[in-house]
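User: Hello! My lab partner asked me to get a predicted holo structure for this protein. The small molecule is zinc ion, SMILES included with the sequence. Please write out the structure tokens.
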Amino acid sequence: MIDAHVHTWTRNMIAESDLEARRIAAERAGVEPRLDSPIGALEAAMDDSGVERAVILPIDSGLNQDMPLSLIEKTDWHADEVSEKSKLITFVGLDPRRGEEGLRELERAITKKGCSGWKIYPPNGFYPDSDEFYPFYQLCVDLEVPVVVHTGFTSRFKHVKYAKPVYMDKVAADFPALKIVLAHVGTPWHEEAIMVASKNPNVSVDVSGWQHFAASATSRVYEMIAEAKLWKVFPNRMIFGSDYPLFEHAMPLKRWVHFFSNLRLPERLIAEGYRQVTDEEIEAVMWKNAARLYFGERE
Ligand SMILES: [Zn+2]
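Assistant: Hello! Below are the structure tokens for the protein in complex with zinc ion.
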């Protein structure tokens, strides 16, 4: 089992406004805010859930928030944290508006610090298909690493208008060799995310955050899977993930793994003409696709 979307941090390395956004989100959910996500807690949750490997996806909010660490310090923090851990890999989180300096850091992170790919977070204030960011995508092609893009719902002080999945379509078409993953299946724009993935064979989606629906409105998960299967995005371009620890209050990792590992579409959808999912297809989502895309394994 691979969890392809997790986060680690400590409260002294993120901005005060991010901490505040976490407090607001926690209050809404009626739980205690998660101000830290130590690696030890992640490893314990993985062991408890049967998750053998995980992919850490740091976010660079340094251009619009007062960050305690520089970009390089933050890359190094994540890279050093996983360097002795065979079960964990990390991406580099980097805002492409950083220009030349950002390009150099992307290359350093991948080639010198062992980062496995590039994570971008458009709700920080940019449309990801701007031509000025094309050198970043070209560098990912050259270095043969994937890019994971946040799409969909975001926190209180970020801007959701930048997070529509359709803004990755031009990039996907212009860089056919670039592997792109739309995080969260674009929640709530999953039909748009599935459409973008369906027309571009280099685009996948990760299901992190969907435990929110699995816990309270299960039919939405089934309908999303059925739709993704219809468009041939499921099973080979859908990837299991959790967004750990951000949805632990909705559904702990262990229950989310159990839910997805045993997923079957309800009879209602089969009666409507959707095709049932198989064990082999679920296995592809639970680890095979991520093993290929993030860990470079051939089948
Ligand atoms: Zn995330």
